[in-house]
Amino acid sequence: xxxxxxxxxxxxxxxxxxxxxxxxxxxxxxxxxxxxxxxxxxxxxxxxxxxxxxxxxxxxxxxxxxxxxxxxxxxxxxxxxxxxxxxxxxxxxxxxxxxxxxxxxxxxxxxxxxxxxxxxxxxxxxxxxxxxxxxxxxxxxxxxxxxxxxxxxxxxxxxxxxxxxxxxxxxxxxxxxxxxxxxxxxxxxxxxxxxxxxxxxxxxxxxxxxxxxxxxxxxxxxxxxxxxxxxxxxxxxxxxxxxxxxxxxxxxxxxxxxxxxxxxxxxxxxxxxxxxxxxxxxxxxxxxxxxxxxxxxxxxxxxxxxxxxxxxxxxxxxxxxxxxxxxxxxxxxxxxxxxxxxxxxxxxxxxxxxxxxxxxxxxxxxxxxxxxxxxxxxxxxxxxxxxxxxxxxxxxxxxxxxxxxxxxxxxxxxxxxxxxxxxxxxxxxxxxxxxxxxxxxxxxxxxxxxxxxxxxxxxxxxxxxxxxxxxxxxxxxxxxxxxxxxxxxxxxxxxxxxxxxxxxxxxxxxxxxxxxxxxxxxxxxxxxx
Amino acid sequence: xxxxxxxxxxxxxxxxxxxxxxxxxxxxxxxxxxxxxxxxxxxxxxxxxxxxxxxxxxxxxxxxxxxxxxxxxxxxxxxxxxxxxxxxxxxxxxxxxxxxxxxxxxxxxxxxxxxxxxxxxxxxxxxxxxxxxxxxxxxxxxxxxxxxxxxxxxxxxxxxxxxxxxxxxxxxxxxxxxxxxxxxxxxxxxxxxxxxxxxxxxxxxxxxxxxxxxxxxxxxxxxxxxxxxxxxxxxxxxxxxxxxxxxxxxxxxxxxxxxxxxxxxxxxxxxxxxxxxxxxxxxxxxxxxxxxxxxxxxxxxxxx
Lengths: 529, 304
Fold this sequence. Notes:
The complex is a heterodimer of chains A (about 525) and B (about 300). Chain A is mainly β.
């Protein structure tokens, strides 16, 4: 504003001069002197005007500069350094480098440290690095909670959830013709040749301030390349309960052991451990139900989880499962509605974890699953599990590598096999089955892992049941995996299976090789430990 | 006046009851990364207990979501995270499991350091074909001391809100930190002045803010794309560029493959400079200021 007044004043001056000039009869000499005066004055005005214009332009540039700067700053643009636009790096002009208003590129080369003006200071503020201070909200009030951080950086979506698609495939060969009887998991390779057993659409996000929602819809191609769809998980859980409590409801994997609650693409091998598939089912133990969990207020990580679910069908494999064609372990199943609470599956779990050192972590848990089964009116099943995870990770891990991870799970199952519908089966038996697996995975360099796994399942002999799911067996598996990034994977695995003879089945061995490949698209929620 | 003192008395009484903490208890601060932790200690002094999740020497993009972190987060009064997706691979499941309403986004107990910071290198187009890009912009902003001051102010505000009894102290500490940085900036600026405008090579694109502050040009990386390991063909290109531009230094962080950098340095006559984003990652860098001291010194030495 002041400048305009100055201009106005200078503009008025010559007018005043002109106004005065004609009064007395002026001599030619005086006239000449006056003309020169006027000329000089008008020149002063011109230069002043020019200066004002320059200053205004500079001001405009200063104002516009910082706001447009980082937004447009691509990685390449950073290299522009101190060159064209002075406000790009305000530090680079007058204050530090003692050059004039227009810094030439690389001024340092000219002016050594000696030339550094000691009294002039390095700038200690820089308006270009911060947005307005209003966006720093500590009160929680205000609209700046979610995305005030960037000017131009609208997050890809602005969507309310993570959406991802995970495609997992396997090329398989086995010396056994019936790979679908050798493998125990529904997402495992089930035939020689190509398999697409886990094409998964995963959604997750905050529902509102109180709940989070998750959904996993799995598409599978069966051995005849027909598409099967499975609502693997769809549940909501609370985020805001006090006292370390959390409630969960919907269709979800039961919190039993390590493998069961996880999705196949997080597994370290291309197939399901035997004990998991044969005790908890090829699809894992899951169902529509509810769960409450509580982290105990102690100094280490200690969590109690208690779930209940229908436990019906193949996803409640050892429970109210009518079996294939209405037959389970040789019995014609009852396939009945729940009569009471005893017919649901109850799943308690207690897990604990602590750090052995800054690089080593241990997590161990015990789980149970209790309910009734369909082989008799009052037949019941109890499964007990124990699991242990040890992980070491380098203090200088890059991309999470290198690491060593050892995971072991053991289960014991007590299965009361009744006499089937109408007591048609000749005997009632109680099976005491147990099994375990143990695996070591070594991430030996960034993106590379190799693993070794041993499996064993002991099924109690029975002279009455010829079900091939009741054959004792063991397996050794080894694999190498390459993760080009965390969104893709290539895995080569070798399995050797050994199936023991029993009253109905003879001893059998098989060798299998899988080449698994996988991709993930979109935003996939991070995984738990 | 009387009413006021009564209500405050009542309020503080309630507070004591609900938190079941003695009035003198220190507030529990969890910082996802060691740089935030260092600032929290500067500001909080003896009034806070600071726990840091990530180790200074490990890759901050890939930290294990250890269950012990859940316990720390469960008990936290304040959580300081970057808020710019650097921790996106491990913080969300921890928070899900911690169930601590005090540190939810939007609560006074949650400091998202990038709030109010103008992030650089916001991708115009999001595609993973470009490697491990950060949707919100480059999250390695703390190595700019001027930004660190802004974050310190943010932290001090949060501390004062959560623990009003010591508000004055937090403000004092923050002012002290600010003047330390202001004084140090003169020193750092002078030390690096002779090298202003030079180009440097870095293993990963962690240094645009440092480059911006001290007038370097860091746009050549050993990684062909962020998060993608160096390939021979890319390294050949880097070597050629280094020779052409007479680049003298390669910045490598503790968790990155130093051997590769050494090889490139050998080929080009350049030097490998141990750089780190986090206090504690290099010997003698327990605090933020010591870290920047170290970075400035080793860079100046290497470029001499």
